[in-house]
Design a protein that fits this description.
alpha+beta, about 90 residues, about 20% strand
């Protein structure tokens, strides 16, 4: 099991535009149309499968919301912040 991060550790490790909401880290991504958001969500799903760490993905018309937490540990761990970094690096690639 991974160790839970303190609020200070979370703040230090969160990529830009990610926020902490309780025991999750969250980011909304905007898109010009629905299918671009769906394609992004699929890419996030592929990263999640490779990392064996699955976020909650909410697809809206021009927005995709990603929520990460480590359910087994009951909060935010390095696995969550690392997954957020991977999503950011792929989004910007």
């Amino acid at each position: 099991m991974a160790d839970l991060l303190s609020d200070d550790e979370i703040d230090d490790q969160l990529p830009d535009e990610w926020t902490q909401e309780g025991d999750e880290i969250v980011r909304q991504y905007g898109f010009s149309d629905y299918l671009r958001g769906v394609n992004f969500a699929q890419m996030v799903g592929e990263i999640a499968e490779a990392q064996v760490h699955h976020p909650e993905i909410i697809i809206r018309y021009e927005e995709v919301e990603i929520r990460l937490t480590s359910h087994e540990e009951g909060g935010i761990t390095d696995k969550d912040t690392e997954m957020a970094e991977l999503i950011e690096s792929e989004k910007n690639a």
